[in-house]
Every structure is written in C-alpha cells, then in structure tokens.
Design goal:
Layout (H helix, E strand, L loop, with lengths): L1 H4 L4 H10 L11 H20 L13 E6 L6 H16 L4 E5 L7 H12 L2 E4 L10 H4 L4 E5 L10 H6 L10 E5 L7 H16 L1
Parallel strand pairs: 1-4, 1-5, 2-3, 2-4
Helix pairs in contact: 4-5
C-alpha cells in the first residue's frame, strides 16, 4: 500500500514484497525495519542506474537529429547541455550542432548559447514557424544535432504543430524524439504525458 500510494508500479511493489526477508514479515513490531529495508532496495535500484558510464549512454551513439521534448521545467535545456558536454569529450566539438526552438521563455536561448560558447560548439536558434529543413546547410556534415525545444503541456493545442516542425525531409530516418519527464510526478500523470506525446509523434 505504501509503494502504490507513492506511485510505484504494481509489478515493482509485488517484486519487493516477494523479496522481503522472512524476519521482517508477519509482525507489526518489525514494520519500521521493513520500511527501512524497502527504502534500501529502492535506493539500490536507483544507484545501479546512475553507475552507468558515459560511454555506455546509447543516446550519445546516435547519429542524426535528437530533439528533447516534454513539459515545461523537466530539464530539457540542462539535459541538452550535459549530453553536449559528454559528446564533446568523446567525439570532439566539430561534429555537433546545438539548436533551440525556445523563443518563449525569457533567457532560454541565452542559456544554451552560454553552454555552446563554453563547449566551442555551433548553436542556432530556430525561429518560430520554421522547420529543421531551414537549417540544412548548418546541419551538413554534423554527426549529431541536439535540439532543445520549448516546454509544452500535453494538453496544449499547439503541441502537434511544434513536434511536426522538428521533422526534416533529409533527416527523417535519423530523427529521434526523446521525451523528458519529471521523475517526482505521479504515475498517472507520467502515463498521460507519455501516451499523448507518443501518439502525436507517431502522427
């Protein structure tokens, strides 16, 4: 009940309950110890994910266009910058292009421009209404193009239009949309956001 109330999946809840040591089971006296054990199990799973080396990140091996989409405030600009920094360490800065479509949030373009300057990477701001095809010349010869998009609610009527603008005739087969989510959000909200973004991306 505690895990489900916290938004954890039924599958994980059942798995952890099944692994619960017998010494912590069948007694109210051991309930605090059982909760502590559960916390340790969850922390261990999160720690395992964070121990992946940068070289293991499949995202950085992608060649083509990678656009980060998602609601406002989930960390798209920061993620773009972090991946760009790790990419430069692995492959150098000549084959990377940063693009931002965020012309709404105050300082959004300047924030990414600062990262680009620090990494000595080319950056371009895509004007509202333009598509990636307008950057064909700048994208030529680039191994990876990272696109930081404007944050939009899954219920925003303009979402389909904004995602469609990320399409490129030349890079259609090598364009990848990466949905960023708030890990602290409730499961129902995450499911709704993922479902709607996935449907629009397919369309």
């Amino acid at each position: 009940r505690q895990l489900r109330a916290g938004g954890y999946s039924d599958a994980l809840s059942r798995q952890l309950v099944a692994l619960l040591p017998s010494a912590l089971n069948h007694s109210n006296k051991t309930y605090p110890e059982a909760l502590k054990w559960l916390q340790q199990q969850i922390v261990a799973r999160i720690s395992h994910q964070s121990e992946m080396r940068v070289n293991d990140w499949e995202l950085l091996q992608h060649q083509g266009v990678m656009a980060f989409v998602g609601p406002t405030g989930v960390g798209k600009t920061t993620t773009t910058a972090k991946l760009a920094a790790n990419y430069v360490m692995q492959h150098g800065n000549d084959s990377l292009l940063l693009v931002t479509t965020d012309s709404y949030r105050i300082g959004a373009q300047q924030q990414l421009a600062i990262y680009a300057e620090l990494l000595d990477v080319q950056m371009h701001a895509l004007a509202d209404g333009d598509t990636l095809d307008s950057l064909a010349e700048k994208m030529h010869g680039k191994r990876l193009v990272l696109v930081d998009t404007v944050g939009m609610s899954q219920r925003d009527q303009r979402l389909a239009q904004k995602i469609a603008a990320l399409g490129s005739a030349e890079h259609r087969d090598s364009t990848r949309l990466v949905l960023l989510l708030n890990a602290a959000a409730q499961q129902e909200m995450l499911d709704e956001v993922a479902r709607i973004y996935q449907r629009i991306a397919r369309e």
